[in-house]
Amino acid sequence: MSQPILEVRALKVTRGGVTVLDIPGLTIMEGEFLSFIGPNGAGKSTLLLSLAVLLKPSTLDMRFRGMPITRGAGLLDYRRRLAMVFQDPLLFDTNVFNNVASGLKIRGMAGSRIKAVVEENLSLFGIAHLALRSARKLSGGEAQRTSLARAFATQPEIVLLDEPFTSLDPPTKEAVVADLGRVLRTRRATVIMATHDRMDAVRLSDRIAVMDCGRIVQTGTPFEVMHHPATEAVAAFVGIDTMLAGTVVHARDGMLEVSVDGRVVVAAGDFALGDHVLCLVHPEHVMIFPKDGRLDFSARNRFTGTVARIDPLGPLMRIEIDCGFILAAYVTRLAMEEMGFSRGMEVNAAFKATSVHVIRNTRA
To answer: Whole-angstrom Cα distance, residue 257 to residue 103?
Structure first.
């Protein structure tokens, strides 16, 4: 059974009299991949630098494997168990082999052993053929692979990743993320990543912590965070476009009827009559059909509306339907062509009651 490797009992960073980071408690389990996500300025990088003790917090009570992290030998020992990878690879002006070997040399590893460890990690990240190439002549993806290989070569117990894929183009990023995922299946390092890309976090993480204004506002599995956001801010960040403000007009046996702009949305939830709520609907849960076409009658929510907007979104198309309120849906390009969706077209939209996540509307 996994044990806590890092425990934060009080962590606060203040700048100019303003608290920019306030983490009263956080436990990171051995071997887990934990991602901190949130918008720019949420405090993700500040938190990562604080966990690495590269930034001096105003308040710090942190324990590594149950032992307090203090100044002197204890702090040095903790730092030697960490490796950190930044958005900018920060490579030395030497070749790839020497960059990956640098941490091992600092730790005093024997030269014969260094060669074997470096070659193993170069192969893991697919850059063995670049061993003698100057760091100055690497592409962005090659440089970040070198940075990752350098970090894992020291066999750290905790790896900290600060926006490691942001500067990479999409194909390169996809390849690097895939290789990192593969390496993590063979290495039992604990990984803590800060990123503003929620899909990177979903793909790699065991657990996600959402940050806003220097605080952790929700922690859970990727599914919990993506599909059951705790607040409106979290919902907006994880990509829930449809947030319908309404009032509960009927509540019985865990099922709700919510009045939204004169229409009724049926949802599952535990609220009382008269409560002001937000009904959150992921666009991938919304089905749309031409008005004279079929409608999924197993869905409790069925509305007629007009296509108000169509936007390309990678392999999908995002369609906004004006049903008296705006409802967003995703369809494939093939489905759009087959059904002939266009602006101004009348359509039927449907989504299940169990697809609606209901939270309290704190602004009502």
So the answer is: 60
- For the chain, helix, strand, coil in percent to 5 are 30, 35, 35
The boundaries of the domain holding residue 262 are 240-360
Closest CA to 277 of 232, 337, 226, 228: 232
Q: How far apart are CA 153 and CA 119, in angstroms?
A: 9
Cα end-to-end span (Å), the chain = 44
What is residue 124's DSSP assignment? H
CA torsion sign, 118 to 120 to 125 to 129?
positive
Asked whether the beta carbons of 35 and 222 are under 8 A apart, the reply is no
Q: How many CB atoms lie within 10 A of CB 211?
A: 25
Tell me if the pTM is above 0.85. yes
The order of strands in the sheet holding 242-252 is 263-268, 255-260, 242-252, 276-281, 356-360
Residue 50: how many CB atoms within 10 A of its CB?
Answer: 21
CA dist., res. 45 & res. 54, Å (int):
11
Same domain, 203 and 313: no
What tokens does 243 get? 């947030």
Task: Tell me which of 236, 271, 306 is where a domain ends.
Answer: 236
User: Does residue 327 contact residue 265 with C-beta atoms inside 8 Å?
Assistant: no
Amino acid at 247: T
Displacement of CA 306 from its chain's centroid (Å): 33
Per-residue pLDDT tens digits for 167-196: 899 999 999 999 998 998 888 889 999 999
The rounded radius of gyration (Å) of the Cα atoms in the chain is 25
Total domains, the chain? 2
Token pair in block for residue 76? 């040095």
CB 27 within 8 A of CB 198: no
44, burial (CB in 10 Å: exposed 0-12, middle 13-18, buried 19+): buried
Phi, psi angle pair for 172, to nearest 5°: -65, -45
Q: What is the pLDDT of residues 312-347, one digit of tens each?
A: 988 899 999 999 999 999 999 998 888 899 999 999
Shared-domain flag, residues 77 and 208: yes
